[in-house]
Amino acid sequence: MSPRPAAAVSASEEVPPVGWRAELHLHCERRPGPSGPRTVLAHKHQLGPLTLQRAFHPEGAPCHLYPLHPPGGVVGGDVLDVRLDIAAGAHALATTPGAAKFYRSAGDWAHQAQVLAVAPGGVLEWLPQPAILFPGAQVASRTEIQLRGNARFLGWEVLALGRPVIGERFTAGSLDAALRVSRDGRALLADRLRLCDAADLVRPGGLRGRAVSGTFIATGAEQADLDAAVAVCSDAPGTLTGVSRLDDLLVARALADTTEPVQRVFCALWAALRPRLLGLAPAPPRIWAT
After folding, report:
1. Does 58 fall in a domain?
2. Sequence-ordered list of residues with C-beta below 8 angstroms from that of 219, at least 6 positions apart, any chain
3. Number of domains composing the chain
4. How far is residue 193's CA from residue 198's CA, in Å, rounded to a whole number?
5. Any idea what job this protein has (predicted)?
């Protein structure tokens, strides 16, 4: 097993070019339109096997984005670098067409960096499908949510260790996953999950033997929003859940044996909180129905 990396890195940092290097940088702006202002994809940079075919507007002003990774999986030595920049007043919703898969490695680490930057008055909804780590995968992942001013964020990350639906467990491999939320450079949330052996999966202070873990984040929350989230999570069979609020940052955690219960409760949280925090009815991305 190769040594644990000091931290997850972006494609702009020094990573040995062992596998595929892929970059996708998207910049969204609010611009006038025939029926009023709406968010458009103003700039796209892509390199290697990461792409975005087009932006959609199924609910009018917000822009829906479906980033694609055509190879369908990540192997040791691959480097993925995703950046979303949401300009002032713009509103984007990003999701993925399927689960991200990290395959068994012969020794090299796979690196993934996701930087989600939202300018004042901007909104980003980040609703990706789960990331699945196959046994033997070695993954370093970093997600940075960078908010400025009164920028708002609503979204989640779900991680499946192994393929629990077929009884497969993450009995070998390593994970170093970081999640950080900041506003104007001040950290609001800093998570780090490190797994390097099977015993890490069952520690009482960690995953408690559950194969699937998820974190849901919402900004701009008040006490009534926390109460609404608690009500949703209290009716979430098949999951261990917890919800907390620090200032206006609401964080919900979920643990389960399979991905479906976590996805179900997070979708319910999003449906309950989107009208409250963004003033918009839930509009599930069309790709979820395919």
Report:
1. yes
2. 147, 151, 152, 153, 154, 183, 248, 249, 250, 277
3. 1
4. 14
5. Required for maturation of urease via the functional incorporation of the urease nickel metallocenter.
